[in-house]
Write a structure and sequence with these properties.
- Helices cover about 0% and strands about 65% of the residues.
- The chain is mainly β.
- The strands form six sheets. It has a 22-stranded antiparallel barrel.
- It is globular and about 70 Å long.
Amino acid sequence: SLRGTTSQQTLILLDGVRLTSGANGTVDLSGLPLSFFDEVEVSRGGSSALFGGGAIAGVVNLRSSSNHSNAASNRFSANAETALGSFGEMHNVAHIGFSAIGARWNIGGEYLSSKGDYPFHTLQFGKDTTVERSNSDFQNIGVFTSATYEIGSWTASSKLFLKNSNRGSPGAVLQGNIEQTSARLKENEALMIHSVSTKTSQNSTLTLAASSRYGELHYRDKDAIFRGPDGENDLFITREIMASARMEWFTGFMHSGLSSEWTYSDLRGNSLQPEVGAFVERATFSLAGNLDKEITLDSSFILAAQLQSRLDINSLGKNAFSPLAGLILRHNDIPLRLRTLWSYNFRLPNFNEMYYLNFGTASLHPERAQSLNLGLVWDITPNFQAEAETFVISTNDQIIAVPKSPVTWSAQNIGNVLSRGVELSCGGEIIPQLLSGRIAYTRQTTTDETVNSITLGKQIQYIPQEIISGNAIVTIDKSMVGFSANYSSFRYTLADNSSESTLPSYIQVNVFAEQKITIGNINFTLRADCNNLFNEQYSVVLNYPMPGRGFRFGVRTNLAGETSKL
């Protein structure tokens, strides 16, 4: 989550294609083969005008290795990695890249597993006790393949992601009891992405894209007898399809574009609200346009203006118009850029929030949010940058979980939530080719501002008011050492912000060391990691303890060379 918002209000993309599920509004990153991604792009600030619903706080775009592939390349590459770690962790990855049948191919697989039996401290009847986490094992298998090829003047790309996940679903650690010790979650998912692009003229390009996703989720808890004598046995199947077209024009200092998108998603399940049965669906058609232009104010100042808008027409009748306007002012002789951005964004309630048994509310309104950013970027050196930005996000009809009884919750709209804060960061090369690092600080306040609310002015649950992160890496020849640190201030677990609902602050420090060795044309990298160096005992969610200190040791190999096309 970003800027004091929920995880559902940050949109996750894969090479620009929506990953965020319409079923639950989130993405389980642990189920993705992250070894096959080269970059993670984080764009802060509302951007529904460009990406559609869910981008209230910002966008995270995962860029796969194949996204940079050159169809004409004839280089062969292969790499493999294996690692062992604490709590029974095992991680194996293999990947090859080659040219064949007129295309550039990337194929790989990843296996990740852990016993998850980490120790943690818990207070049981006034006594500090150390026990091991139970039913926290997991096994993830991911397969990835892609092909980049050229057909006449068109450049095309196809990607396929397959994943299988089998894990325990451990529950809360309570006084005298650890819940859900037998609950299991099994997932299967297939994702296909296709895109083609061509230059229609010297100054214009056309891009067509399509994606399809199929997912199965099976949740089993034989001890959940409140659901019946056989316990809980839920099966959900989701299908999602997207097709889009985009035309872009580049003329001088102006960039413009028009795009359209159609999406369809449905959900089948045996644990939906009785009034909706076992099947729900929706479709959305979108039209969007953008205009970016640089304007020379005089011989020194340049103003870049950005205008975007998007209309989403939804089959549920909950349509949305999302405009965006931004300005960047810079001086030719001063390495400073002043930027401001205003946007009006939305998020449709997901299927879980509307239809899940004993939780969903079919009459939920979409969230609508105004976002305003004002920031300054200072290029201290070509490779070192500092940024400062202040933001305000005002969200109407925000969807939250409200308790109906001691054991049941309900998704409901609340009138208005206001998030505001400041972000400071700097990073880059501190000593060229020797020391690099980055530090970031966020101060944020997110409160319920609903008129006549009994929690008026109270901090929204689980939103920390301060976040600090930093890292540093020292590189000497073929050796590398580094560390990262993350701090989160205290949070409240209840809307009344009582002292009894305070979840303590925590700081987590990780360190690593790498050594590269070359034998012939094969490169080896030996790596050792220590996560949570100081064995911090903490929870992100109340009664769900996180792992303490853990170690990981691994080796990575790399092979590259020229090969003739097949």
